[in-house]
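User: Quick one: structure for sequence A, then sequence B.

Assistant: Sequence A:
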Amino acid sequence: MHLRPDARRLINYLHELPHRPVRFCPWCDATDLRFRSQPARQRLARYYCRSCRKSCNSLSDSPFANLHRMDQWAAFAVYLLAGWSSVQIAARFGLTSKVYFSWGRAVGVVMAEECAELHQWWTTRQFRENLQPPEHIERQQRAVVTWLEATLNARHARCPKCGGGQTYRIKGLRPKFKCDRCVTCFCTLSATPLTGMIRADLWVDFIKGVMDGQSIQDLKRSSGLGMGASKRWREQFLLLIEALGHSELLGWIVWMRSRRSNEVVSLVRQGGCLDMATRSVYPQGLRKGRFVSKQ
């Protein structure tokens, strides 16, 4: 939260960067500049230095020198800070991979110079160097896990039909109850996105993996479920998080998920082995339905 002013300052800086006045020559630091040409559409005003006899503009001494489409740099920084992946940003702006990395490198340099604290925060999460969530995200993660555990381990519930509290739990992992008053059987998960799901013993570990930003392949390998079940479970748990009102946690999950490619690249560079068939960092489990640990 405290970095939002820095983010706004960075975006405003990139928006005003091409139009800032040139007061000295970036090549010789002389102030004897002469206006050389009028700015045309999508062009910058150029100046001529009488000392070194070189021309310059407002971007000559910046990392954005020789880069085009200056009207989109601020919007590019917005998507970069929002955690969009390189593929998504490149498709959004119609950029090639070379142009994307040139823009990203320039934004990173400017961010380090103008907003050092914001750059430190962004770098650790961009390259997954620090996977520790912020305090408010960690509180939301604990709230989701606590709600799920409390729901699964509840011993009593109020009957949705008659409103009576004289209920007892039916044997099983799912929170099913029977009402003595109206003899009605019900499940407390009926009105939630988790209705119809099985294997409740895997839910807590699975949702922790979802909140950590793991891919479908990693969730499949770590849980022992099939690919289709892993996809459905992930979608249902995301709907549950949204239903509980943790929108910031959803944004964090998207951010962590988009950074996984950097984590995989670092793993391979450090000598790690990646299963190319499923592109997972987890080994194949011996039994389905059992979580396995990283090796």
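Sequence B:
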Amino acid sequence: MKLQTAVRSELSIDDVGEFLKENYPDRYSLVENWEELDMKLWAEPVGDGSYIVFLEVPEEEFEKLTNIFPSKEEALGAFITTAQESGWEVVPESYVVYHADFEGNALIAAIKTKEGISKHDQLHLEEMIQKMLRYPRVVVYSSEVLTYIKDLYPEVDSKAFVISREIAKRAGRAPDLEDIAKLYGKDVSTLEGKLELIEELLKNPVKLPDGEVELKPFYYPLEV
């Protein structure tokens, strides 16, 4: 079980526990309240005074808590819930790529997972979202497409890795997906083509009309 959280410090972080205790007591409360568990804490710098703090607990550690919880699985579930309430997240290991277009007046949405690509019309968005909920990250090119599903998936913003936003942070602005497609020699006239390109943009460096940029990994905390 590996968790992460984003923090800021102008100085190097040597003693992670003490740093959290002094500067991020809400995050430290997880360590304090689950002291029965053998945890490993460390911090990695990601630039501009930002760090990612990682917390790792071997899953067998939760066996220790079966005198309190009915099972190891319930102990683990309670730990994850408490962690999320304290500002931590499980390090994402998978993602779903999402895009949507209008065909006339009809919205057609599509997702790409390891199982392949599936398309859904406006009447079947709930079915698509049920599939999306299995993934801790939703990868999109533009945040605009998130507005089409927010009513059905209100927490999607907190899971979305928005590639155009990451490009703009580094290059000042992000080109249209169609302009990037020309650089990659990709056909994005279909939703399938757009999804394939969006996923390819997770690989660094990302080509732009004026050069290249390196994007953070999709699994980093979104606020980094």
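The longest helix spans residues 72-85. The chain is about 30% helix and 25% strand.

User: Thanks, that's what I needed.
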